[in-house]
Amino acid sequence: MLTQGGTSWTAEFRGLTLHTALQPIYSLSHKRTIGYEALIRAFDTDQCAVSPLQLFELPDSHAENLLLDRLCRYLHIQNYSGIKDQLNWLFLNVSPQVVTTGSQKDSFFGQLLEKTGLPPHRIVIEIVEQPTDDAERLRETVAYYRELGCLIAIDDFGAGHSNFERIWNLSPDIVKLDRALLNRATEERKARQILNGMASLLHQSGCLVLLEGVETRDQAMIAIDAGVDFVQGFYFKKPSLELENLSQAQADLDELLEEYKYYKQLIQDPNHQLASHFAMPFERTVERLQNNATMEQACVELLNHPTVSRCYLVNSNGIQIEDTLVSDSIERNQDPRYRPLESTASADWFRQQYLRQALAEPENLQVTTPYLCVTGAYMCVTLSLAFEHSGETRVLCCDILANPPAPDSEG
């Protein structure tokens, strides 16, 4: 069912001619291509394109569905094995329905790799987002691909059935975040924070993270800021049928990364500006505390700042001393739904990174990135400074609104 024409192969299925298209996948850190996703492209007898969705609706039995899946993989591997690139990965899509309705051990695939000479460690098996009623069979088949030496990827994570349950069941090497997450992050700051947190959580789970569907420069910057490892999308390179020109698929990641550094350091990252702005007020507050002023007396200057929400004092064990001082504006606008969280006398903050960092670097003002404040369920930035008072270490902490409301206009 395969035919060679020049340097590439095609396949025939139900009167359609099937071609391999490859789309590059880039590592942001390496600044180069590290793999390609193989995509099927179908054409009718008039050379008109037939969508992949229409193609995969053609099989009318499990056997024919399995045949089409194997035919596509055979075509892709046959084409890729003839390319001079001897290093990078080939990402192959495999439907969970095909995996779990086929034989438990896909001996066809192992024989195919042996026949074409393509090493299994260069194959990434992508489990695409589709439901399956046989999770155990899916897990067993994925284990077989892993035993062969292939890597495993979960596709479209964050949409439909590709969620953390699938991560726990399959322990993938790579997770591809669904493009819908990127689209939301382009429009909403909160969604961008969720995207960043999701990438971090997946890293902690032992997975490399790929963000697909990057179509604009802004989305490329969001991907860089999210901390993902790999990117893929039309902004960098569209899927191409011209397999012999893969070497020309390089992207100018240097320029993007330099722009990100400038944007992050000088425009977006507020840490340096916050530390500079609050350094003197913090020093004056600490000096008052060292001179035995009460917290109410010492923190008046800080609490009068329009962005400051609260101040509190913690000992070297992370235990809060007295209750939190809240600014007048925050007290007037406190959400009554979160009243159970308001009192923080004797609260233990040792788990917080800002406290441990302050204790590790006394007399140096620490500034966090924005996070959700547990005492009011709003986004804040915490400034912290460790100092000595009467032979004991204290840490002065001050929460600042990450998204302060705009001042009321007059007239």
TrEMBL record:
The lineage of its organism: Bacteria, Pseudomonadati, Pseudomonadota, Gammaproteobacteria, Pseudomonadales. It comes from the Bacteria. Signal peptide: none annotated. Transmembrane segments: none annotated. InterPro entries: Cyclic-di-GMP_PDE-like, EAL_dom, EAL_sf, Sensor-like_sf. Residues 1-253 form the EAL domain. This is EAL domain-containing protein (Putative c-di-GMP-specific phosphodiesterase class I). One of its GO terms (molecular function) is cyclic-guanylate-specific phosphodiesterase activity. Pfam families: EAL (PF00563).
